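Q: What does the assembly look like in three dimensions?
Context provided by user:
Components: two
Sequences:
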Amino acid sequence: DAGVIQSPRHEVTEMGQEVTLRCKPISGHNSLFWYRQTMMRGLELLIYFNNNVPIDDSGMPEDRFSAKMPNASFSTLKIQPSEPRDSAVYFCASRTRLAGVSEQFFGPGTRLTVL
Amino acid sequence: GESVGLHLPTLSVQEGDNSIINCAYSNSASDYFIWYKQESGKGPQFIIDIRSNMDKRQGQRVTVLLNKTVKHLSLQIAATQPGDSAVYFCAENNDNTDKLIFGTGTRLQVFP
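A: Here is the predicted structure of the complete assembly.
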């Protein structure tokens, strides 16, 4: 299994531009999570999906951020317009939700730099 | 994807010694806990987990201890190796939610 796949691995963009981050969860996993990691705030949950449906987006910073999961094998996190304070590493994670919470498998992350 | 950097508490140990990394969790209703290891440039990687009906769980070279009275979790690594150098995070959860709440992390440095 290739694990959780994220693309791109690195993104450098200018303030005001639209940024789209992509995630392919592990096949068969039915929960997907987007996290942001920064020096100041550590690892924060932005949003998560169960069976492609957004369950909790309370961690999304503001309306500039949006996430979609059109099918079980693909999700996007979009920032429009991007700002320098969005610079961070964004992780996607997936898991199978059985009788309860189980371990989440993380992707390698996308390092975003907004100039 | 580098992990949180400059302001992390750091534990420095000599190769071959045992390491103990501590974590205080916040929610007394949490009933599931995980330790993750994050190496430079990678995402967090699952190490070991424990449910609140247990006090101790052992894996290969790692042991997790849970003290619910004081809401404290620890990760013990036996015979620490250079490959153990990383940032370690604890995470907590309760069955009422799918969310994991992560701690701030501890950087483990292993020197020869």
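Follow-up: The CA atoms of residues 37 and 85 of chain A lie 12 Å apart.
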